[in-house]
Specification:
- The chain is α/β, with parallel strands linked by helices.
- It has two domains: 321 residues, ANL, N-terminal domain (Rossmann fold, 3-Layer(aba) Sandwich), CATH 3.40.50; 109 residues, ANL, C-terminal domain (GMP Synthetase, Chain A, domain 3), CATH 3.30.300.30.
- 31% of the residues lie in helices and 24% in strands.
- It is built from eleven helices and 22 strands.
- A nine-stranded mixed β-sheet has the order 4-3-5-6-7-8-9-15-14, sandwiched between helices. Strands 11-10-12-13-16 form a five-stranded antiparallel β-sheet.
- The structure holds 5'-O-[hydroxy(phenylacetyl)phosphoryl]adenosine (DLL).
Length: 435
């Protein structure tokens, strides 16, 4: 499957051929797409290459839900060898399926991600993403086996054991969510283990948004190079895009995924460099091909050449989701902005939670931040001054005053999976939201 593509012109040629093939296939085999194309007045034969992409209608998460569980599959269940699902906190899960070839390509792309991240056959990879319906564990597992590395399939959780295996088995690579990586770092500190004595050298972190500040903290506290990996189950799982060792944007694997950025309000395509919603068309997937899937993730693309030699465009770190933007007293707030502000203040732990509620007609927002361990809880003056500094920093960046609640170290819940940074109690009374 892996073809050598030397430049962007060759890439576009391959993309066009694959797109034409894929559009014809979904038109023939997925009633949902036949109807969607008919409704938009698009004949499959009018799609002759990537220049025609914008003629095609979008697919959304709601379409997947409406066709739960297997309605959008383009192959017979006989050919489906694996099923994954992403949970969400409410409603039906989003269900995805893979043929044998889909699993092959997934392994190949996860292997590509690891290779360009500097991981090789001599490495010992501790896969601390969850195994199960979540795609993180198995996705990284297959990629790591493909490059011939030694895989430790420990899955998420049981942090003391994670540390023990890291020491005993000499793990050189840690794959997990960035928030779990920090939790492991904290645990090492509590156990009095100097990360320098471990063999860790690379971290493959993704599945949730994290900032550059968070990267710096993790790298310093775990003594490794922290690489950002992106993916979503609807498209495949981990390995849709990944940073190379340059750590300057995540290369999108465009030979399999045609990527666009759109204005989430109007649906218009935006040029490289402008932030908007990432839209992905899969062109090689068999079981669940998706046409112009709206990921909900906000990022921007660049086609600037990268010194690693990959010709694929890079996406910036995910800035947020179209559905995680909070509106607090009329001000637009992304959790990632709060994280960046907090981590710019020395000594602050990147464990925080924003609790938003409604008091009468007014939004009430409280930002919970853990007191750094260098400040004793009875040092009232230092606590007050810290709280003031946080408040001022948030105000000057977001233009919004949040009530700051300093809490004892280790009180904000930590977990092995995706961190919950926002508790929006208002949504209990209005629409429910994906977790
Ligand atoms: O999180 C797949 C994955 C597993 C990616 C392990 C990377 C590593 P889902 O559970 O379907 O799949 O969640 C997908 O998570 O739309 C983004 O909003 C978010 N996400 C994933 N990777 C990143 C990342 C997996 N590197 C959703 N940065 C996506 C920011 C990310 N957000």
């Amino acid at each position: 499957m892996e073809s050598v593509i030397r430049n962007r012109a060759e890439l576009e040629h391959v993309q066009s051929a694959r797109l034409v093939n894929m559009v014809n296939r979904v038109y023939q085999s997925v009633p949902f797409y036949r109807q969607a194309l008919d409704a938009s007045g698009v004949r499959p034969e009018s799609i002759t290459g990537i220049a025609d992409l914008t003629k095609l209608p979008f697919t959304t998460k709601a379409d997947l839900r409406d066709n739960y569980p297997f309605g959008l599959f383009a192959v017979d269940m006989k050919q489906v060898v694996r099923i994954h699902a992403s949970s969400g906190t409410t409603g039906r899960p989003t269900v995805v399926g893979y043929t044998k070839d889909d699993i092959e390509i997934w392994a190949e792309l996860a292997a590509r991600a690891l290779t360009y991240a500097g991981v090789g056959s001599d490495d010992v990879i501790q896969v601390a993403y969850g195994y199960g319906l979540f795609t993180g564990g198995l996705g990284m597992h297959y990629g790591a086996e493909r490059i011939g590395a030694s895989v430790i399939p420990i899955s998420g959780g049981n942090t003391a054991k994670q540390v023990q295996l890291m020491q005993d088995f000499g793990s050189t690579v840690l794959a997990c969510t960035p928030s779990y990586a920090l939790y492991i770092a904290e645990t090492l500190e509590q156990m009095g283990i100097d990360p320098a004595v471990l063999k860790l050298r690379v971290g493959i972190f993704g599945a949730e948004p994290w900032t550059e500040e968070m990267r710096r903290q993790i790298e310093a506290r775990l003594h490794l190079k922290a690489i950002d990996i992106y993916g979503l189950s609807e498209i495949m799982g981990p390995g849709v895009a990944c940073e190379c060792t340059c750590q300057d944007g995540l290369h999108l694997y465009e030979d399999h995924f045609i990527c666009e950025i759109i204005d989430p309000e109007t649906g218009e395509q935006l040029p490289d460099g402008e932030p908007g919603e990432l839209v992905i068309t899969t062109v090689t997937k068999q079981a669940l091909p998706l046409v112009r899937y709206r990921t909900g993730d906000i990022t921007k693309l660049t086609a600037e050449p990268c010194s690693c030699g990959l010709i694929f465009r890079r996406m910036s770190k995910v800035m947020g989701r179209t559905d995680d933007m909070l509106i607090i007293r009329g001000v637009n707030v992304f959790p990632s902005q709060i994280e960046a502000v907090l981590l710019s203040i020395e000594g602050i732990e990147p464990n925080y939670q924003l609790v938003v509620d409604r008091k009468g007609a007014l939004d009430d927002a409280e930002l919970w931040v853990e007191v750094p361990s260098t400040i004793a809880l009875d040092e009232v003056r230092r606590l007050e001054s810290l709280s003031k500094r946080i408040d001022q920093a948030i105000q000057s960046t977001l233009g919004l005053h949040l009530r700051i609640k300093l809490v004892e170290p280790q009180t904000i819940p930590r977990g092995a999976g995706k961190a919950q940074r926002v508790v929006d109690k208002r949504s209990l009374y209005t629409t429910s939201k994906e977790g």
